[in-house]
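To assess whether ligand presence alters the predicted conformation, the chain was also submitted together with adenosine-5'-triphosphate. Input:
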Amino acid sequence: GRAARAVSFTGAVKSYGAVRAVAGMDLEIGRGETVALLGRNGAGKSTAISLLLGLAEPDAGTVELFGGPSERAVRAGLVGAMLQEARAVTRVTVRELVAFVAGRYPDPLPLAEVLELAGIGELAGRRVDRLSGGQTQRVRFAVALAGNPSLLVLDEPTAALDVEARRAFWESMRAYARGGRTVLFSTHYLEEADVHADRIVVLDRGRIVADGTGERLRHSAGGALVAFDLA
Ligand code: ATP
């Protein structure tokens, strides 16, 4: 039969009080795709990612990963995630943290490869609670990669990075995406989405208002990307 999609949202809705953070979302992501979720502050990107990871339950509709419930895919070690979250407060070193996470997955990447991909070789012996914002972000990327997940989910992965760290990050993400892995990242920046994703999904007020290649979206006159650019 047909291989299940990596990600499948069907009529997904999630409200917080009166706010419909995700307001009826249908989205299919095939295996091997690199997809950008593009939207302004409050568009619903983080909420969509929470639904996808099973961290929040939809009020209506369904969200599946690899043809089953999110929890199953997460438990099977198919998913790695880098979320927007507070800094680590534990006293472990970067190496200890990455090794701990890797040890919970059935088929992790070698530690040296993770440190190299995340560009944190020189931080391996440092305590995770004593890193800068940008360094912390690179460690969170390492944590997301450590289990060698089939689906890598990155919520605003470049937010605190300087220009050089961004360049290195995107190069690593590309390297990781090769070989049939699926990547979903959220961003505020059209250019990042355009350059680094195969496909852009534009969210506005919890709805998908455009979905396609950057090329296609640029050429749809009066399209959502144009509106996004001007906003
Ligand atoms: P940003 O780019 O700022 O991270 P976003 O696109 O990720 O934004 P969400 O964080 O998903 O957007 O928020 C979508 C809407 O849902 C916003 O109006 C937000 O205020 C609201 N919201 C999200 N999480 C909660 C929550 N836990 N409680 C109340 N409202 C929430």
